[in-house]
Design a protein that fits this description.
Order of helices and strands: EEHHHHEEHHEHEHEHHHE
Strand content: 5-15%
Number of domains: 1
CATH superfamily: Outer membrane efflux proteins (OEP)
CATH topology: Outer membrane efflux proteins (OEP)
Strand order of the largest sheet: 3-4-6-7
Number of strands: 8
CATH architecture: Up-down Bundle
CATH class: Mainly Alpha
């Protein structure tokens, strides 16, 4: 490798062997990709709601655990089907026996066998397949749960940042009000009680600022842990996608024929238990057929084989057996009790799934009714904030040009600061109402199993706040 300096940069020329290229792909490339998360450009980039949820789904231990359950259930299906595939083992029994032994040492032993017919096996196969379906639905529900956690953490951070900004503005207005009242007290225009009230307002807002800072820091760290980014590199896009829920919808949506994926998984688990119980019940007086095959090559040079050959002259060095083993269970109390237990478990699992369906539908209905109320409350809060803004504009105009009526009370800078503080109070109510509405929307989408589906095409932004007055 040679390094040749030029007028503006260093030019690197080298010839790499394939082994070195492989090393670079394995180590240098991942290091380069990981360093992107620490570069200043990335730290300044804003993360959207969809991106945050996608990152959370990629690293979530809950999702990874559900994926492992799917792999396990898939293996269980293969295990029930492989019962019909003959198994073959190869071994040997080398050594020397002293005295008489009906089983002389063998140079090679090959054994094979498999299930030919079992009345319960078909039920066990259907049970395993239902369990696989339940695991897949549980994975879908786990993804929905993680998406909900990430989405709620995202909008909580956005809400707290907006509150922090508004309260910080309020505190500035309160400090200015305290200064104005102090000057009016010194001039004999206000009483000491007015000064105490203004200082109390400023002190309360300082406490509110500290709480807002703590809320922002906690929510930032929580979201950073969910999506796997350092808190210092986390900057979110304050826009929220278009309304995910139709407010005029009266019928709850269904996932896989049920309220959501969790309920569907519960019914699939109940079906798996039912098939298991049916298989356990088909045991008594049902024959089982097994294929049996074996080949042995005895160690003819041992004393044990020679002694056995003297007693039985027909024994040969090679022996084999092939046939079908038939088993007919007549009396087995243990299996009878197991069948009753499986039936009871299947019944309980099915009734639990029914209860989960009812609870999920009740939750969806409750959230749908609350959405309309929250939307109305948000509209009221927005109108109240607009009214406070208009009153503030009137106060500022009267301060500049007067009211035009010499007999009417004149506006003072003290009135302006009070109007500003009042307007910020209404603005905080707008922020809170918007946050509560978004929370309910996300929770309803989680209940219906549509959250992840909604997040994928969610590209049209919708502002979550109103404009900040100057």
């Amino acid at each position: 490798m040679s390094i040749r300096p030029t007028s503006s940069f260093l030019s690197l020329n080298w010839t790499l062997q394939p082994a070195i290229l492989g090393t670079m792909r394995r180590f240098i490339l991942p290091l380069t990709l990981s360093s992107l998360f620490l570069c200043p450009n990335f730290m300044g980039a804003q993360i959207s709601l969809t991106t945050a949820v996608d990152l959370a789904l990629r690293i979530s231990p809950r999702v990874q655990g559900a994926q492992a359950d799917v792999i396990k259930a898939n293996a269980q299906v293969s295990q029930t089907l492989d019962a019909y595939v003959p198994s073959i083992t190869v071994g040997a029994g080398l050594g020397q026996a002293y005295g008489f032994s009906p089983n002389p040492p063998t140079l090679a032993t090959v054994s094979g066998g498999g299930l030919v017919f079992n009345a319960s096996q078909s039920f066990y196969i259907r049970s395993a397949r239902a369990g696989l379906n339940a695991a897949r639905l549980a994975l879908e529900d786990a993804r929905e749960a993680v998406a909900q956690d990430a989405a709620l953490a995202f909008i909580a951070l956005n809400h707290d940042q907006q509150r922090e900004q508004a309260i910080d503005q309020q505190a500035g207005y309160a400090n200015a009000l305290a200064t104005i009242v102090q000057a009016r007290v010194d001039a004999g225009q206000d009483s000491p009680i007015d000064l105490t009230r203004s200082k109390l307002t400023a002190a309360e807002l300082r406490v509110a600022i500290l709480k807002a800072h703590d809320d922002v820091a906690y929510d930032r760290e929580h979201l950073a842990r969910l999506i796997g980014l350092p808190p210092t590199a986390l900057s979110i896009d304050p826009d929220f996608p278009v309304s995910p829920v139709a407010f005029n919808a009266s019928e709850p949506t269904a996932a896989h024929g049920y309220a959501n994926a969790a309920v569907a998984s519960a019914f699939a688990s109940a079906e798996a238990r039912r098939q298991q119980a049916a298989g356990d019940a088909r045991y008594h007086f049902w024959p089982e057929f097994n294929l049996v095959a074996q080949y042995q090559r005895y160690a003819t040079f041992t004393d044990s084989f020679a002694a056995l050959q003297k007693l039985n002259g027909t024994i040969k060095a090679d022996e084999g057996v092939f046939g079908v083993q038939i088993i007919l269970p007549i009396l087995d109390k243990g299996h009878s009790a197991k069948a009753r237990e499986s039936a009871a478990v299947a019944s309980r699992t099915f009734h639990d799934a029914q209860s989960a369906q009812m609870d999920a539908l009740d939750g969806q209905s409750r959230l749908r009714h609350s959405l309309a109320e929250l939307q109305a409350q948000g509209e009221v809060a927005t109108l109240q904030q607009q009214l406070a803004q208009q009153q503030l504009d009137v106060t500022r105009l009267q301060l500049q040009s007067g009211s035009g009526d010499p007999n009417a009370p004149q506006m003072t800078p003290k009135d302006e600061q009070k109007a500003r503080i009042a307007e910020r109070d209404k603005y905080l109510a707008v922020i809170d109402a918007s946050f509560q509405l978004h929370q309910a929307e996300i929770q309803l989408l989680r209940q219906t199993g549509d959250l992840e589906t909604w997040l994928k095409p969610a590209t049209t932004p919708r502002p979550t706040t109103v404009s900040v007055p100057q």
